[in-house]
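Thread amino acids onto this structure.
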C-alpha cells in the first residue's frame, strides 16, 4: 500500500532481527539477499508477523526488491484487527513483498555441482545434435526455419574445467560457500582455478567471501562486483597478508561504506596490483590514521598497486 489516508493512524513496527529461518543462512534485516523464481533479487528488511495476515503469529520476511516494480506495496499494510495502517518497513510504492519463510530462496552454494552445471563434461549430450537446435525461427513468409549451431564440440573441448584456469559464474544466484564435508571435498578438484568472476550474485556475508577465497588456494583474480557485502566487520577481519596471493580484486558496486574496509583489504592482500572499489562511499577516509599534525601517513599494504578504480 503506497498512500496513507488521513483518517487512519499509522504504526511503525520497525525491524526485527531476533528470528532466523531453518536455512543455513540467517535472516538478517538489511543484509540477507534473496531471489524469486523469475530472477528478481532483493534484500530482507523485516522479519516478523504481518498485521494483515490471517495468522498474526506466523513469521514473514519483508523484502525490498532491487527492481521496485517487482513488489506489491511500500512495506505498509492494513491491520486486520484495527483497520489502521501498519508500516513494517519502507521502500518504493511497489517495491515490497512479504514472503513466507518456506518460500525464501537464498540462492545456491558455490560447489562442484554448480561448476559442472556451468561447464559441462565433454561427453555430455549435445545441445544441437546434427548442428541443429530444437528451436526454430519464423520467417517473414510465415515458415519455420531451423536454427543451426555450429562448432559445439570445438567449444566444449575448450571449456573443460580440468583445463581451465578462469571461470565466470555471473548472476548464478550464488549465496554462500560450499559447506559440509561432501560439498567441500567435491570442490577440491577445482583448486587449480586462478580467476573467478562471481559478479551479480547473492553474496552478502564477508565470512562466506573469505571462505570461498580459502577454498581456491591458487586464486589470484577475484570479482564479487555487485554483491551487497558492505563493509568488513571488525570481528572477522582477516590476518595480516592472509591472502597475499590475490593480485586483482573487484568490489565495484558492493555498497562499501567505510575507508576502514579498504585498509583491511590492503593489509590482508598486500600484493594487489589491481583494486576496483567504484561506487563506494569512502567519505570517512579523512578520519583515519591522522597524525598529530593532522596529515595522513602513506596507506599500508598497497605497495604493488598499479590500477585503482
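Threaded sequence (309 positions):
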Amino acid at each position: 500500500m503506497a498512500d496513507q489516508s488521513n483518517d487512519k493512524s499509522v504504526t511503525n513496527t520497525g525491524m526485527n532481527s531476533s528470528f532466523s529461518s531453518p536455512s543455513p543462512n540467517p535472516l538478517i534485516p538489511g543484509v540477507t539477499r534473496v531471489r524469486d523464481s523469475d530472477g528478481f533479487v532483493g534484500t530482507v528488511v523485516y522479519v516478523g508477523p504481518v498485521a494483515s495476515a490471517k495468522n498474526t503469529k506466523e513469521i514473514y520476511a519483508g523484502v525490498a526488491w532491487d527492481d521496485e516494480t517487482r513488489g506489491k506495496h511500500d512495506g505498509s499494510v492494513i491491520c486486520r484487527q484495527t483497520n489502521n495502517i501498519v508500516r513494517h518497513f519502507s521502500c518504493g510504492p511497489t517495491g515490497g513483498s512479504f514472503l513466507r519463510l518456506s518460500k525464501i530462496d537464498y540462492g545456491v552454494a558455490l560447489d562442484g555441482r554448480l561448476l559442472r552445471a556451468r561447464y559441462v563434461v565433454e561427453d555430455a549430450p549435445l545441445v544441437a545434435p546434427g548442428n541443429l537446435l530444437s528451436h526454430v525461427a519464423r520467417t517473414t513468409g510465415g515458415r519455420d526455419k531451423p536454427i543451426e549451431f555450429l562448432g559445439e564440440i570445438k567449444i566444449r573441448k575448450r571449456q573443460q574445467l580440468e583445463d581451465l584456469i578462469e571461470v565466470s559464474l555471473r548472476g548464478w544466484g550464488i549465496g554462500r560457500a560450499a559447506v559440509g564435508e561432501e560439498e567441500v571435498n567435491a570442490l577440491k578438484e577445482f583448486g587449480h582455478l586462478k580467476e573467478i568472476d562471481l559478479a551479480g550474485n547473492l553474496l552478502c556475508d564477508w565470512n562466506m567471501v573469505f571462505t570461498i577465497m580459502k577454498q581456491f588456494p591458487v586464486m589470484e583474480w577475484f570479482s564479487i562486483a555487485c554483491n551487497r557485502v558492505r563493509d568488513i566487520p571488525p570481528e572477522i577481519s582477516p590476518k595480516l597478508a592472509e591472502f597475499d596471493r590475490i593480485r586483482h580484486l573487484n568490489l565495484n558496486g558492493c555498497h562499501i561504506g567505510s575507508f576502514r574496509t579498504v585498509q583491511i583489504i590492503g593489509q590482508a592482500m598486500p600484493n594487489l596490483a589491481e583494486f576496483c572499489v567504484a561506487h563506494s562511499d569512502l567519505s570517512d577516509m579523512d578520519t583515519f590514521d591522522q597524525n598529530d599534525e593532522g596529515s595522513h601517513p602513506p596507506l599500508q599494504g598497497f605497495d604493488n598497486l598499479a590500477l585503482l578504480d
